[in-house]
Amino acid sequence: MKKILVVDDDTTLRTALTRYLEKRGYLVQDAASGIEGLTSFEEDPPDLIVSDVLMPEMDGYEFCRRLRATRLGQLIPFIFLSSKGEVEDRVQGHSIGADDYLIKPFEPRELLAKIEAQLERSRRTHSEMVRLMQQSKVAPPVQPPPVPLPLTPAEEKVFWEVIQGYTNKQIGDHLFVSPRTVQTHLSNILSKLQLENRSQLVRFAFEQGYKLPIEPPPLEEEA
């Protein structure tokens, strides 16, 4: 049975979502803030997280940011559920590390469809990783070198950092640039590789055989 963590300070909505998802065969954990969400995640990691943005103590953006900064939380499917529906809000949610973003008020069936899609994508990724690991144990893999990335030198440096699971801020610290510059490069990378988010980028790198290089030199700040 798949476990879903619902994080929202609206008790009524949280209760309704819990009942709705439990009737559809999911085990649901709930939390009223990002702080409670992190505690719940650390004690009993779920298979997927649905989180509000506007919450007391710690909002959803900071919750997602801290989650993605942990090794265990890097690839957990994460869906924002929020009344903040402006394009800038959605872009910010995705840039922090969310896999999807649904605007309140919403149709429960749409949320359910997004949950099922993310869980299925996660299942396929995990199955493929297991298969590749099993193959590597049977015999040394024989494969051609990866196709050169269609990226600029600056974008390639960011690419290697992202697939190691680092956040924009951590990448900025490593390469001596601002998080905004990192996000600009990441957006260009996703566009050139025809991918939607960080999770897909990590999977792409794994499937294409890109191995972590020697630590890249500092990236100069761009205007």
Architecture overview:
The protein is α/β, with parallel strands linked by helices. It has two domains: 3-123, 3-Layer(aba) Sandwich (Rossmann fold), CATH 3.40.50; 143-223, Winged helix-like DNA-binding domain superfamily/Winged helix DNA-binding domain (Arc Repressor Mutant, subunit A), CATH 1.10.10.10. The protein has helices at 11-23, 34-43, 60-68, 87-96, 108-138, 153-162, 168-175, 179-192, 198-208, and strands at 3-7, 27-31, 48-51, 78-82, 100-103. β3 (48-51), α3 (60-68) and β4 (78-82) form a beta-alpha-beta unit. α2 runs parallel beside α3, α6 (153-162) packs across α8 and α7 crosses α8 (179-192). The longest helix is centred in the middle third of the chain and has 31 residues, at 108-138. The model is unreliable at 213-223 (pLDDT under 50).
Determine Rg (CA atoms, Å): 18 Å
Total discrete domains: 2
Low-confidence residue ranges: 213-223
The helicity comes to 40-55%
**Could you name the CATH topology of the largest domain?**
Rossmann fold
Question: Per DSSP, what share of the residues sits in E-state strands of 2 or more residues?
Answer: 5-15%
Mean pLDDT: 85
Assign the structural class, choosing from mainly alpha, mainly beta, alpha/beta, alpha+beta, or little secondary structure: alpha/beta
Tally of alpha and pi helices: 9
**Given the C-alpha coordinates, what overall shape results?**
globular
CA-to-CA gap between the ends?
A: 50 Å
Strand order of the largest sheet: 2-1-3-4-5
